[in-house]
Design brief:
Largest sheet: 2 strands, antiparallel
Strand order of the largest sheet: 1-2
Number of domains: 2
Number of strands: 2
Radius of gyration: 27 Å
Shape: elongated
Strand content: under 5%
Order of helices and strands: HHHHHHHEEHHHHHHHHHH
Number of helices: 17
């Protein structure tokens, strides 16, 4: 058997033990290169080619052992800690919704909250299925559709202006085949997926996309921002702008240009919010409710009174403060504290901190450039609403109508959040895909060059 044939047989036996088929090509190349190096060193010492090849194979170790070790190190891994903390969020949110369903105000209100709790359970089940499906999906396949996803999302956002569908008086929805789709609510997630793929393109794989990223990267952020501004979608505008700018700074590498872009867009968002009377009054009410008309400070005042009256143990399961609106969505965090007390609020804050810590730890293990940027965007879309929810409890921030991820009621945002979490789990599962240049030959042996 020739040396090349012997090496091929060895590599076949190694790869047969490695379940991640996508690694086989790279494994074979790296291990073959190392075998050739070992055999070449032996030939320089005066040994025959066959003897040198045999010695090189002996140095590499038993192929089944090497293959099993590679499989153990590089098999897909589920991030059970991140999954556990999200399931804790879901359980806490369900407890709050069941508490609302247990309120006894009047027949209409009781039936309304009961229906919300039932729907919430359905959304949790659907979200969990979506999350698990995406967790086992290869996220890297999304990269090739980045531009198409970006364009389709922009078209969907512009279609909102021709739709007569609204929820609670807010635009941002379109109806397709009888189903109402929250385009504005979903768009930050789909746009960030698209931008992650567009901004991680390189010269070799897509020269034109690389040039567009370098020259017109900020415009990719500006177009959606303009649509949000025209559509009076301040919540989505703030979230998308903040996250996309951080992702752009992370992917671009040109910090001077990034800082200029970030400063300009942040200033534009603040000026836009200030020139709108409703938002300007809301910001003023957050600092001093007495400085604005009562209708503009109503929610801030009730929020502060709700927090002040909660107590350490709350008012008990089924309690309801009727003066506080939207307790099932925008004001769900204050409602949980009003019902279960300050101790429950501190516990939930601890879970939020744990979630952020787990997301950061998982992010640090990702090496794939597209996965790194995508993980950054999806995790920030989940983290920022939690941070805002904590700040909202102080009663000194503008009320944006931003629900708590995984907790507040709402089918669209729950599905989007569980979908984002599924992508995070998918990225983490594939974090051990080996980059080029890693020395695979060290697995299964102690010293590659030590004669036996």
């Amino acid at each position: 058997m020739s040396r090349s044939d012997a090496f091929e047989v060895y590599l076949d036996r190694v790869c047969a033990q490695v379940g991640a088929r996508e690694l086989h090509g790279e494994l074979r190349m790296e291990l073959a290169n190392h075998l050739e190096e070992l055999a070449g060193e032996r030939e320089v010492m005066g040994f025959e080619k066959e003897d040198a090849a045999k010695w090189a194979l002996e140095q590499m170790g038993d192929p089944e052992t090497v293959g099993r070790n590679l499989h153990r190190v590089h098999k897909p891994r589920m991030n059970w800690r991140l999954l556990a903390v999200v399931l804790m969020f879901a359980a806490i949110g369900l407890s709050g919704m069941l508490s609302l369903a247990a309120t006894q105000v009047n027949s209409v209100t009781d039936e309304f909250y009961g229906r919300l709790a039932s729907n919430h359970i359905h959304y949790l089940v659907m979200g969990t299925v979506l999350m698990l499906g995406l967790a086992f999906f290869d996220y890297r396949k999304l990269r090739r559709y980045s531009w198409a996803l970006y364009v389709v999302t922009l078209i969907g956002m512009m279609a909102v202006f021709f739709s007569d569908v609204s929820m609670n008086g807010a635009k941002g929805w379109i109806k397709v085949s009888g189903f109402a789709i929250d385009v504005f609510g979903w768009s930050p997630y789909t746009l960030l997926v698209a931008l992650a793929g567009m901004w991680t393109s390189d010269r070799s794989s897509s020269p034109w996309a690389y040039r567009l990223k370098k020259r017109y990267g900020p415009l990719m952020i500006l177009f959606p921002c303009l649509i949000y501004a025209v559509g009076d979608a301040l919540t989505e505008l703030v979230i998308f702008t903040a996250v996309s700018l951080m992702v752009y700074a992370r992917s671009n590498g040109g910090w001077r240009r990034s800082i200029i872009t970030i400063s300009g867009l942040v200033t534009a968002v603040l000026l836009y919010a200030w020139q709108e009377p409703a938002y300007r009054l809301g910001m003023m009410a957050a600092f001093d409710p007495r400085s604005v008309p009562k209708r503009a400070s109503y929610m801030i005042i009730n929020l502060r009174e709700t927090m002040a009256s909660a107590g350490w143990w709350g008012h008990g399961f089924g309690a309801l403060r009727e003066q506080l609106p939207y307790v099932y969505s925008d004001m769900f965090f204050p409602y949980l504290i009003y019902t279960f007390g300050y101790l429950a609020g501190l516990a939930l804050a601890g879970v939020i901190v744990w979630f952020i810590a787990q997301a950061v730890l998982a992010w640090r293990t990702v090496r794939d450039p597209f996965g790194k940027i995508l993980f950054t965007g999806m995790s920030l879309l989940l983290i920022l609403p939690f941070v805002y929810g904590l700040l909202l409890l102080t009663g000194h921030v503008l009320i944006l109508g931003l629900p708590l991820p995984f907790l507040s009621y709402g089918g669209s945002h729950l599905l989007a959040e569980f979908g984002a979490l599924g992508l995070l789990l998918s990225i983490y599962r594939r974090k051990d895909t080996l980059p080029r240049g890693e020395d695979y030959s060290s697995i299964g042996r102690e010293y590659a060059n030590q004669p036996k």
